[in-house]
From TrEMBL:
The keyword Isomerase does not apply. May play a role in protein folding in the endoplasmic reticulum. SUPFAM superfamilies: Chaperone J-domain. It comes from the Eukaryota. SMART domains: DnaJ (SM00271). GO terms for cellular component: endoplasmic reticulum membrane. Keywords: Chaperone, Endoplasmic reticulum, Glycoprotein, Membrane, Signal, Transmembrane, Transmembrane helix. GO terms for biological process: protein folding. It holds the Pfam family DnaJ. The lineage of its organism: Eukaryota, Viridiplantae, Streptophyta, Embryophyta, Tracheophyta. This is J domain-containing protein. CDD domains: DnaJ. Residues 34-98 form the J domain. It is a multi-pass membrane protein.
Amino acid sequence: MAPPATIRWFALVLALMLSLLISPSTAIYCDEDDCYDLLGVTQSANSSEIKKAYYKLSLKHHPDKNPDPESKKLFVKIATAYEILKDEATREQYDYAIAHPEEVFYNTARYYRAYYGYKTDPRAVLIGLLLVLSGFQYLNQWTRYNQAIDMVKKTPAYKNRLKALELERNGGAINKKKSSKQMDKKTEEDLSKELDLQITGAGKPSLWELLCVRFLLLPYTVSKLLLWCGHWFWRYKVKKAPYTWDDASYLTQRALRVRLDSWVNMDDVTKEDLLQRRLWEQSNLDAYFAEMRKESKRRR
């Protein structure tokens, strides 16, 4: 469950968004009226003038002395305007909102912070933001994965493998005692276990890939990275040891800017040839690219 401060922060954001759609930021103070006009004073009036105007109008429109319903509504508006203008801090905020009506979000945020005490803890905001982004990220991963699975299931290779597996399970003939739907479902489950569906860029969603989990594991990740960098420096810079297959593969991928899935699907002969060229050295990489360009021109 999200912390209370996070819930309050999201409530504030929602209120701010609604206020942007409904009215300008000055309307949150005295509705559609001008606070100064309600008290009958100018914007340059001092505190004593504002106080004097309020007492005069409040006596005139007080419900005990004026039973008119409209007068009662006006009394409430006058009291609200006085509450805003009597305090120097809130009056300064209101004057700023009048002078800068285009800064709607900023003005509205200041108002809610002053009157409702939304003093947000940055840590709560960060946690809430990570949880929301992680939720959207997880849903997006599942959507992409399911779409990729559906695309693979429509390919002839998958359908042919499905039929072959069904025949194999039933000794070359379909068992009529079982419904075709049950058989297809069970066969598809077996096929999903046996068939390696290599879906580029749409792997099965994992909680370990979510932003919130990665953020929690950030100290461990940074420590592991520092340890790896230290090991790399000691092994290849200090001891001058030859690169292992995995490390040479990593350097080659980075030099050629090849995706990991493309490198994995590459045949071993091509990989071996690329590793032998030592493409992580700039001179060898330039020579390789020149050779590829020459080969491309020759084929044309």
